[in-house]
Amino acid sequence: MRTTINILAFASLVSLVVAAPRTTVETRTLDQIYQAAQKETGTLRVAWGGDLASSSDGVTAAFRARFPGINVNITTDLSKYWDSRIDRAYQVSNRRDDGYDVAVLQALHDFPRWKAEGRLLNYKAAPWNDIYPQFVDRDGAYTGLFVFGFGQNIVYNPNHFNTPFAQNYLDYLKPEWKDKLILTYPNDDDAVLYLFKLIVQKYGWGYIDRLVAQGVQWVRGTATPSLVLSRNNTAGLSFTSYPSSADIVAREGTDVYMVWPQTGTIFKSTPVPETAKLFISFLLDNEWQNTAAGGGFATRKSIDKKGVFKQPGLDPTSYAAFMANRQQVEAWRFQFETTLGTPQGGNPTYYTV
Ligand SMILES: *[C@@H]1O[C@H](CO)[C@@H](O)[C@H](O)[C@H]1NC(C)=O
Ligand SMILES: *[C@@H]1O[C@H](CO)[C@@H](O)[C@H](O)[C@H]1NC(C)=O
């Protein structure tokens, strides 16, 4: 009897699963979604992962210019603080409100968990089939929007740079690099942590000891090295930063580096779902995609001129796998903290020299 009941229960579960409608790809144009969004009231709240307060200014200005009358508040903070805030909002609201409508983060481990908790709205923006399937959730719960990375760009201030270029990480151990490196604490940013994991796997822990002995200036945030090199008129270089100031240039490195799909999602609790869809669609549309990629890697195949999946020694999915194993992440973080100490300084998003 019991078996029969279980089989019946199982059968109805199967039919439920089969009956659940698959998310279809958006067929409306941006302007049609815009029309739907204009019927909603309220401000779209976007949690934008980054480590420079101004890093969402460009996208805010472009979105507002393209869609007048839509209220949007895109705020930048470290991804690791956004997920805490979002989870706390969810907790204190008794699971009714995530506090934000959209999140765009590097904390890739959050998305599958939020999906499993039933908190994400499935949405497949129009260019869905152009996005590498490795970078999306197949149900549309979250989507890789941009490809970011560390280690590939080596930034310096050409006005003060007077040292021959390093060919690989071993070169930074040479005497000419003494007191000239500005690097982000790997124990403060999981993407930088993953880069350092790759470096340790290639060169061993002895390398880290020798690097530290070079008198590295360790800072919080991945914009900070670039800002220090710019505003502090420092001769030196960083491989954990990007050009966050006009007078800083980047050169491609020749050693290990990492990339990941910066991923976006819409929370089911949003009171402005059409506006949220408009924002995700805008980010994935050709215009913003080309701006964001700047001729480099992208999650959309037709925008990804360099071919992120064709780079020797680079696995663009490995950071997501690393992030999913929190025990491993914590073990690596504390390995570095043992050597470097706790990250010193305030929230780097508000960094000023
Ligand atoms: C925008 O959102 C941030 C983060 O939630 C908040 O601190 C700020 O007050 C908001 N700004 C406006 C104008 O609502
Ligand atoms: C600026 O450079 C000086 C000399 O290299 C250094 O001592 C100081 O810590 C730097 N300031 C910042 C904010 O990085």
Q: If you had to describe this structure to a student in words, what would you say it looks like?
A:
With 353 residues, this protein is an alpha/beta fold. The protein folds into two domains: 23-149 and 259-314, Periplasmic binding protein-like II (D-Maltodextrin-Binding Protein, domain 2, 3-Layer(aba) Sandwich); 152-256 and 329-350, 3-Layer(aba) Sandwich (D-Maltodextrin-Binding Protein, domain 2), CATH 3.40.190. The protein is 37% helix and 14% strand. The protein contains twelve helices and ten strands. It has helices spanning 2-19, 30-38, 57-66, 79-92, 110-116, 190-203, 205-212, 224-231, 273-284, 286-293, 318-324, 326-340, and strands at 44-49, 72-77, 102-105, 142-150, 153-156, 182-184, 217-219, 237-238, 249-252, 258-266. The strands form three sheets. Strands 2-1-3-10-4 form a five-stranded mixed beta sheet, sandwiched between helices. A three-stranded antiparallel beta sheet has the order 8-5-9, with helices on one face. Strands 6-7 form a two-stranded parallel ribbon. α3 links the parallel β1 (44-49) and β2 (72-77). The radius of gyration is 22 Å and the shape is globular. The termini are far apart.
Q: Which features characterize this protein?
A:
353 residues; alpha/beta; D-Maltodextrin-Binding Protein, domain 2; 2 domains; 5-stranded mixed β-sheet; 10 strands; 37% helix; disordered N terminus; binds 2-acetamido-2-deoxy-beta-D-glucopyranose; signal
